[in-house]
Design goal:
The complex is a heterodimer.
Chain A: H1 4-14, H2 18-37, E1 45-51, H3 52-55, E2 65-72, H4 83-95, E3 101-103, E4 108-112, E5 115-124, E6 131-135, E7 140-144, H5 146-159, H6 163-176, H7 187-197, H8 204-219, E8 232-233, E9 236-240, H9 247-269, H10 273-284
Parallel strand pairs in A: 2-5
Antiparallel strand pairs in A: 1-2, 3-4, 4-5, 5-6, 6-7, 8-9
Helix pairs in contact in A: 6-7, 7-8, 8-9, 9-10
Chain B: H1 2-17, E1 23-28, E2 33-38, H2 51-54, E3 58-63, H3 64-77, E4 79-87, E5 92-95, E6 106-113, E7 124-130, E8 141-142, E9 148-154, E10 164-169, H4 171-179, E11 192-196, H5 200-212, E12 216-220, H6 244-255, E13 260-264, H7 273-281, E14 285-288, H8 293-306, E15 309-315, E16 321-327, H9 335-341, H10 343-346, H11 354-360, H12 374-393, E17 411-415, E18 441-445, H13 459-467
Parallel strand pairs in B: 3-5, 3-10, 6-7, 11-12, 11-14, 12-13, 14-15
Antiparallel strand pairs in B: 1-2, 4-5, 4-6, 7-9, 8-9, 15-16, 16-17, 17-18
Classes of the chains: A alpha+beta, B alpha/beta.
Chain lengths: 290, 481
C-alpha cells in the first residue's frame, strides 16, 4: 500500500529544523558579504552562490555543512594560480574573520557559530557553464558544474511533481539506517542514483520502489565484478560521481539495495495496511507511520 | 622571479602556521593571479599585458623532443643550427621537424646556450637561458638533466623591434592534456584502425580518430584526389593528383605526429582478397568508407571470419540521408544480414566516383555522379567516428562510456532532408515531436541477425530446411580463415 499520509509525515520529520535553517542562512550571508567586500578579495570576486544539498533542498535533519562557491576572476594557467596557492590565499583571507579555518581538498572549511561552511573557489570554464575547481591532491584544476547540478535537481523535481527532492530525503534516511558504514554511499552518489531511476512516480511509495528496483536492475550486474561503473553527474555528464567509490563498498551497497527493493515491493503490493506499514518500517524505522 | 616563488612559499607557510610572515599573498588584477608581496609594501602594478595583446606577438615554435635529443650536442658545442618554416611574412616560425607540410619559405637560425657573444648582424639567434618559471608552461623547456630553460630571441637588425615569443612544442603531453578528462590518454595509442575507402567520409573519420589519439592506422584506397573531390574532401587543391591514402596520412600526422601510418594504394576486390584479409587481421577495428556494395560485402566476410568489429558508413543519393552499420561478429547482424533483410534501404547507395557510376550503368545512358555537399557528409563521418571510438574504448575507462546505452542499435539512419521521390518526401518539418520521424535527426534501428546468414550464420541448415534436405548429408562448406 502507498500509505501516503504516513510517507508525508515521515518526509516532514526528515526536514531540517527551522533553527538550523536560520543559522545556516545567517552564516552563509555573512561570509558571502565578507568575500564580496574584503580588500583582498573584492577585485577577484565575481559572484558567490550556494550549492550542495542545502541549496538543492535535499538536506535532512541537521544541516551538516553549507557549500558556498566563490567565483574568482583567475587565469588558472598563470604562475601563482596553482590550486594550492589559491586555496591558501583564500584561507588567509578567511582567517581574518574566523578563528577556525581548515584547508580541505577543494575548499576552505570554516566554522561559523554552529554551522560548518565549505568555501569553494572556482573560475568559469565558460559563462554560466562548468567551473574549474582547484584540487589540492591532484595539483590541478578540475571541472565541476554546481549550477548544472542545481538546475538538474530543480528540473527533475518539477518533472516528478515534487517527488524528487522528497525521495532523495527518504533515500538518505534509509541509507543512514544501514548497518555498516561500508554500505552507505556518499549523499551525492545516492542523489544521482535517485535522479537516474525515479521515473515518473505517483506516490512516495512508488518512487522508493522505482529507485530501489532501478538501481538493482541497472547496476546489479556489476556486483562482484570488482569494478564500479561510471555514474554520470546529472549536472555535468563527463564527471563520474562514483570515481572514488570502492568496489567492496559498492557491492555492499548493492546487497542492501537488493534486499530493500524486495521489501519495498512487498510493502507496496501488500493489501493489508498493518502488514504494509510493518514492511515500510523495516526500511525507514519505527517512527514511520507512528 | 625566484624571489617571487620563494615569497609565495613564505607567505603560504605563514598562513598555514597562522603566524605573520615577511610576505603576504595578494590578488593581482592585471595578471588575474595570486602574487606575493612584502608585508607593508603596496601591491606592485605588473605590466598589464592581456591575452589579447599577446595575440599581437609572433610566435617561434621549437620542438622539445628534438631539443632533448640534441641537448648533448648543444651543451658540448654551445650552439646548434635549426631550420624553420616561415609563415605569415616571417611573423611565425615553426621548426621544420614539426612540419608535415612546410610553408615553402625557409628560415635558418642558430640556437645558442646562454647569452650570445658579440654582435649578431644577420639571421635569427635563439638564446637558451635557465629560468625558474614552472615547468608546465609552454615557454619553458626542461632539459634531460631536469633544469628549466626559456628561450630569448635575438633578432637581426632588419627585424629589430618585432616582438615574438619562443614556445616549446612538447607534443604528446600537450596533446594529451586536451584529451585528459575525456579519455584516459594512453588508451588509444596502442590501437590499430584499418580505414578502407578514404573519400570525404573515410578521411574525416581517420583524422578525427587521429585527433582522439589513435596510434596506428592502416589506410587503403585505390584513388587519387581529383579537383572535383576538393569541395568535400579534407585534402585541398595543393594535394590534387596525390593518392588519397597519402593525403590522409599527412592529415593524420598533422594532428597526431606520433601516429604510425601504413598506406596501401589498392582497390578492394577479390583480386586483393588475401592482402585485405591480412590487413584486417592486423587491426583492432575496421572503418569502411567505400561506396559500393561489393566491397562492403567482401570486407564484411573478411571481418566476420577474423572476428573483428567493423563500422560501415555511407551517404544516400545526393546525401539526402545516410546510414551507419556497426557489425560485431556473432553479436550483431552483419552487412550480409543487413542487405538481406533491408534490401530497399540498403540499395540506396551513394555513387561518388565516375568509375562506379560507369560500372553500374546498364545502358549507354550516362550515370550521374551524385555526391552531397561536405556539410551533408560530415554528420555521418562524425557519428561514425564516435561509434568507432566507443568500439575502440571497449571496456576501458572513459567518460564516453555514458554513450554506450545510447548507441546500442546495429543500424543508424541519418535523415538530412526530405528528398522528393523518397519515402521521406512528406516528412513533417523539424519539430520537437518525439513520436514521429523528422529530418536532421539520427535514428537507431534494431533488426535481428539472420540465423542462416551465409556469412555469420548457419547457412547449411537454412538451405536444408528450405529444400527439405537432411543437413548432415550436404557437403561441408570450405573452412573460413
Amino acid at each position: 500500500m502507498e500509505l501516503s499520509a504516513d510517507f508525508a509525515r515521515y518526509v516532514s520529520s526528515c526536514e531540517p529544523d527551522d533553527d538550523a535553517v536560520k543559522t545556516a542562512k545567517k552564516a552563509h550571508e555573512k561570509v558571502r558579504d565578507e568575500l564580496k567586500t574584503d580588500e583582498d578579495t573584492k577585485d577577484a570576486h565575481e559572484e558567490t552562490f550556494l550549492t550542495g544539498s542545502y541549496r538543492r533542498h535535499t538536506a535532512i535533519h541537521n544541516i551538516e555543512d553549507v557549500d558556498v562557491v566563490c567565483i574568482l576572476d583567475l587565469d588558472i594557467q598563470a604562475e601563482g594560480s596553482e590550486p594550492e596557492v589559491v586555496l591558501t590565499w583564500l584561507q588567509g583571507v578567511l582567517d581574518k574573520y574566523y578563528s577556525e579555518t581548515r584547508p580541505q581538498g577543494r575548499s576552505i572549511g570554516i566554522s561559523a557559530k554552529g554551522v560548518w561552511l565549505d568555501i569553494v573557489p572556482g573560475t568559469p570554464v565558460y559563462q554560466d557553464g562548468p567551473l574549474w575547481i582547484p584540487d589540492r591532491d591532484a595539483k590541478a584544476w578540475v571541472q565541476s558544474h554546481p549550477k548544472g547540478q542545481i538546475s538538474a535537481a530543480s528540473e527533475k523535481n518539477k518533472d516528478t511533481g515534487g517527488y524528487y527532492v522528497q525521495t532523495v530525503k527518504l533515500m538518505k534516511s534509509w541509507r543512514d539506517r544501514l548497518p555498516t558504514d561500508k554500505s552507505k554511499p556518499k549523499s551525492y552518489i545516492l542523489e544521482t542514483l535517485v535522479h537516474q531511476t525515479i521515473g515518473l512516480p505517483t506516490s512516495h511509495a512508488r518512487a522508493v520502489v522505482n529507485v530501489l528496483e532501478g538501481i538493482n536492475s541497472t547496476y546489479g550486474f556489476y556486483r562482484g565484478l570488482g569494478t564500479v561503473p561510471f555514474i554520470a553527474d546529472p549536472g555535468l555528464g563527463t564527471v563520474n560521481v562514483a570515481k572514488r567509490w570502492e568496489s567492496a563498498e559498492f557491492d555492499a551497497f548493492l546487497d542492501q539495495v537488493k534486499a530493500a527493493a524486495s521489501t519495498a515491493r512487498q510493502a507496496l503490493n501488500a493489501t493489508d495496511e498493518a502488514e504494509s506499514r510493518k514492511l515500510w518500517r523495516k526500511l525507514f524505522g519505527s517512527t514511520f507511520g507512528a | 622571479m625566484s624571489d617571487q616563488r620563494s615569497m609565495i612559499r613564505d607567505a603560504m607557510q605563514a598562513i598555514a602556521q597562522r603566524k605573520p610572515g615577511k610576505s603576504k599573498l595578494v590578488y593581482d588584477k592585471t595578471k588575474r593571479t595570486i602574487v606575493a608581496v612584502s608585508e607593508g609594501v603596496p601591491t606592485p602594478q605588473a605590466l598589464n599585458i592581456t591575452a589579447d595583446d599577446a595575440d599581437m606577438f609572433g610566435v617561434v615554435t621549437l620542438s622539445s623532443g628534438w631539443l632533448r635529443d640534441k641537448w648533448l650536442s648543444l651543451t658540448k658545442a654551445g650552439s646548434l643550427p635549426v631550420d624553420f618554416s616561415s609563415w605569415d611574412d616571417g611573423d611565425a616560425l615553426t621548426q621544420l621537424e614539426l612540419c608535415i607540410q612546410g610553408s615553402g619559405t625557409r628560415a635558418a637560425a642558430m640556437l645558442v646556450l646562454g647569452q650570445p657573444q658579440g654582435q649578431t648582424t644577420e639571421g635569427v639567434v635563439i638564446s637558451i637561458v635557465p629560468t625558474d618559471k614552472p615547468a608546465h608552461r609552454s615557454d619553458v623547456f626542461v632539459s634531460p638533466d631536469n633544469i628549466a630553460y626559456r628561450a630569448e630571441l635575438v633578432e637581426p637588425a632588419a627585424t629589430a623591434g618585432r616582438q615574438r615569443e619562443v614556445v616549446f612544442a612538447d607534443i604528446e603531453p600537450q596533446l594529451d592534456l586536451r584529451r585528459a578528462g575525456i579519455l584516459e590518454t594512453t588508451v588509444l595509442k596502442d590501437r590499430t584502425v584499418l580505414c578502407i575507402g578514404l573519400g570525404t567520409g573515410g578521411a574525416h573519420v581517420a583524422v578525427e580518430l587521429a585527433k582522439s589519439g589513435v596510434g596506428h592506422f592502416i589506410l587503403v584506397d585505390r584513388d587519387r584526389l581529383s579537383v572535383g573531390n576538393v569541395v568535400r574532401h579534407p585534402g585541398g587543391i595543393s594535394q590534387v593528383g596525390r593518392a588519397k591514402v597519402n593525403v590522409t596520412r599527412d592529415l593524420i600526422l598533422e594532428k597526431n605526429p606520433g601516429a604510425q601510418v601504413e598506406v596501401h594504394v589498392i582497390g578492394v576486390g577479390f583480386e586483393n582478397r588475401d592482402v585485405i584479409a591480412g590487413l584486417v587481421q592486423a587491426s583492432d577495428l575496421v572503418i569502411c568508407g567505400t561506396d559500393n556494395r561489393q566491397s562492403k560485402l567482401l570486407i564484411n566476410e573478411l571481418c566476420v571470419s577474423a572476428n573483428k568489429s567493423a563500422v560501415y558508413g555511407g551517404a544516400f543519393r545526393r546525401a539526402y540521408g545516410g546510414q551507419i552499420l556497426r557489425v560485431r561478429p556473432k553479436l550483431s547482424p552483419c552487412q550480409q544480414c543487413f542487405v538481406s533483410s533491408l534490401p530497399d534501404e540498403a540499395s540506396d547507395v551513394e555513387v561518388s566516383s565516375q568509375d562506379d557510376a560507369d560500372a553500374i550503368a546498364y545502358s549507354d545512358r550516362p550515370v550521374a555522379v551524385e555526391p552531397g555537399l561536405s556539410l551533408d557528409v560530415l554528420p555521418i563521418a562524425t557519428q561514425l567516428a564516435k561509434l568507432a571510438m566507443l568500439e575502440l574504448l571497449a571496456d576501458k575507462s572513459s567518460t564516453l562510456n555514458v554513450l554506450k546505452r545510447d548507441f546500442d542499435a546495429p543500424w543508424y539512419l541519418w535523415l538530412n532532408r526530405p528528398e522528393p521521390g523518397t519515402q521521406y518526401a512528406d516528412m513533417p518539418p523539424l519539430s520537437d515531436s518525439s513520436d514521429e520521424m523528422t529530418i536532421n535527426r539520427w535514428y537507431g534501428i534494431y533488426f535481428e541477425r539472420d540465423e542462416q546468414c551465409p556469412v555469420c550464420g548457419d547457412f547449411l541448415s537454412g538451405i536444408a530446411a528450405a529444400y527439405g534436405l537432411d543437413a548432415t548429408q550436404l557437403p561441408a562448406l570450405p573452412e573460413k580463415e
